Amino acid sequence: MNPARPAVTPALSSGVRRITLNGAEAPLSALLAEPATTPRAVIVALHGGGLTSGYFDGQAHPSLSLLTLGASRGYTVLALDRPGYGRSAAHLPDGLSLTDQAAMVRAALGAFAARHPTGGGLLLLAHSFGGKLALHLAAGGLCDLRGLDISGCGHRSALLPGQLPFGGGRLRTTRLWGPLRLYPAGTFRHDRVPAAPVPIRESAEVARWPEQFGALASRVRVPVRFTFAEHERSWLHGDDDLADLAAALTGAPRVRTERQPGSGHNISLGLAARTYHLRALDFLGGCLPGLSDLGGSDPGRSDPE
To answer: How far are the Cα atoms of 3, 87, 105, 181, 267 from residue 60, in angstroms, in the given order?
Structure first.
């Protein structure tokens, strides 16, 4: 039997550092990148299931890191290890429900805002399961929240129950990620993949998402953009699906739905990462007070690419 490979702490991009926040119930680890001057706003990045905050600081190519790109554009970028991941995993070995994750993240963000300038407010950029948490945070009220940008998360699953991507406590990458040619060489090296066990309470929530989305959608009161990878395999994203998704967010002042060409589910680790991140920054910047989203669409309109 081959011995288990030791845990590896991935390297960080220049200017990115590790911090710990008080999440009340347990400490939350995070990655932080700050601009040289007062930030325009704070982008809070929330990773998907079976991954960590390192998803937003990909090490296979310098162009991948959302943290360094955001800081270079004047934003503070805070990528959290969601409850049940990173430092909190030892305190929460089974993880938390989405409702409890949202409560813990609110506490951590309040502690962060008490010590760091937040500029024009908070912006959420979330991927996959993190998108579900972002919608919970928005629907439940998050102080100074200005907008959401979500990738890899819809409301209609494309998978049967037996095809769900969590197996053996880890993500089945070959099923979910899409064609491997969409990712830089070296992405799947053991010391570069920001993977982690999926907490059991989190995996148990997957089947409940359609019901949860229906209860949350109308309570979101900030602009929202959804992006689906060209080779997305987990979510239905035909034109009718995107129109229905946008129409459910009746309280959001703007809703955009887009597709990212040349990408698989984990867009922020793929060759299309920089293009996606620049579009996300453009959209989120337009959510700040006094600015407008020049590329926005009418509320409820689906703009697939």
So the answer is: 26, 24, 29, 13, 13
Q: Report d(CA 187, CA 184) in Å as an integer.
A: 6
Which pTM value belongs to this model?
Answer: 0.91
pLDDT along the chain (305 residues), means of 10: 51 96 93 97 97 96 97 98 97 96 96 97 98 98 96 90 52 69 90 89 91 96 98 94 97 97 96 98 94 40 39
Is the CATH code 3.40.50.2300 the one for domain 17-285? no
> How far, in Å, CA of 160 to CA of 148, rounded?
28
With a CB cutoff of 8 Å and minimum separation 6, the contacts of 5 are: 190
Amino acid letter, 243:
A
pLDDT for res 165: 54
Pairwise CA distance, residues 87 & 170, whole Å:
18
Residue 220 burial (10 A CB sphere; 0-12, 13-18, 19+): buried
A 10 A CB-CB count for 288 gives 17
Q: Where are the alpha helices (DSSP H) in 6-155?
A: 66-72, 98-115, 129-140
Q: Residue 91, SS3?
A: coil
114 vs 259: CA distance, rounded Å = 37
In the chain, where the domains are located: 17-285
Under 8 Å between Cβ of 299 and 252: yes
